[in-house]
Amino acid sequence: MAGKTANVHDVADSFTIEAIATIQAMEFASTLGFRHIILKGDALSIIKSLNRADSDLSPIGCLIDEGRILTSCFHSCIVSHVNRQGNEVAHSLARYGLSVQDDVIWLEDCPSWVHSLVSSDLI
């Protein structure tokens, strides 16, 4: 198990933050050497944009393009939508990230509150 949380500074809207978090998740997985990933997110428009082949002309189009390029770093990369209730671990890490100054990374071990959330997510 591995996890990361970060405080993204100077970004006002949640749409952009979701796109940045998606990119950072893919970069983190690639850095750790994962070759097959399943990326789940509750920002449906971002998930749909990553799965489309046409150009994204939205204000975050350059982030979507970067995410699409990152998917090629993996042997397989499945990007799928999950309801917010099924994404509690990610949202808890995001809330925690608001309280930290620097990136926080967990490898193998994680705080008990994260482990509890992951365990309940599997049920």
Q: State the secondary-structure class.
A: alpha+beta
Q: List the quaternary state of the chains.
A: single chain
The rounded distance between the terminal residues' Cα atoms is: 17 Å
Count every beta strand, where a strand is a DSSP E run of 2 or more residues: 4
Widest sheet: strand order? 1-4
Shape: globular
Q: List the helices and strands in order.
A: EHEHHEHEH
Most strands sheet: 2 strands, antiparallel
Report the C-alpha radius of gyration, rounded. Answer: 14 Å
Low-pLDDT segments, ≥5 res: none
Percent helix: 40-55%
* Strand coverage percent: 15-25%
Summarize the model shown:
The chain is an alpha+beta fold and 123 residues long. It has five helices and four strands. The protein has helices at 14-31, 44-51, 61-71, 88-97, 112-122; strands at residues 2-5, 36-41, 76-81, 104-107.
